[in-house]
Amino acid sequence: MVVVTAKILEIPVVITEQYPKGLGPTVPELGADGIKKYSKTCFNMLTPEVERELQAVPERRSVILCGIETQACIMSTTLDLLDKGFDVHIVADACSSRSQVDRLVALSRMKQSGAFLTTSEGAILQLLQDSAHPKFKEVQKIIKDSAPDSGLLALFQNQNPLFT
C-alpha cells in the first residue's frame, strides 16, 4: 500500500534486498515493479548506492521506512538515519519480524531514539495532506481495501508499557 501510493504520488522509493540470492527477491505483492532494487548483505540499507540517492536530494530530510526484519534492517537503518539528522517515520503495520517480541522491542527502541511510529494509512494521509489533492481519489481506492490484521492492536491495548 505504501509503495504503490508513493509511486502514484511520484515520491522516490528506494528498495534494498537483504541477500536476495539466498533469501529471495522482493515479493510482487508490494507493487515494487519498475523500482530499482539494491542488493546488500549488511543490515543497514545505507549502502554507498543508497547514500548517493539520498545525497542527490539534499533538501529531503524526512524518510519513511517499512520492511523486514524490524529488529535488524529497519532498526539499523533508522538509527543511522537519525544519527545523520533525518526525520524517520516507521510504518509499523508494514514492518515485520519472525518474532512479535523482536518486532515490539525494535519499534519501542526506535521510538525512544526519536523515530515516529505511524501506520500505512496514517503515512499515506499525511503525504496527501488534503482530500482536495489531485491524486486523492486514486489513493483512496488503495486505502479502502481492507488491510489484514498486523497483530499490533493487541500490543497497544491496556497501555502497553513499551509504548507509553
UniProtKB/TrEMBL annotation:
Q: Where are the transmembrane segments?
A: none
* Span of domain Isochorismatase-like: 5-121
InterPro entries assigned to the protein according to its UniProt record, in alphabetical order: Isochorismatase-like_dom, Isochorismatase-like_sf, Isochorismatase_domain
Pfam annotation, one family: Isochorismatase
Instruction: Give the family this protein belongs to, as stated in its UniProt record.
Output: Belongs to the isochorismatase family.
Q: What is this protein called?
A: Isochorismatase-like domain-containing protein
Organism source for this protein? Eleutherodactylus coqui
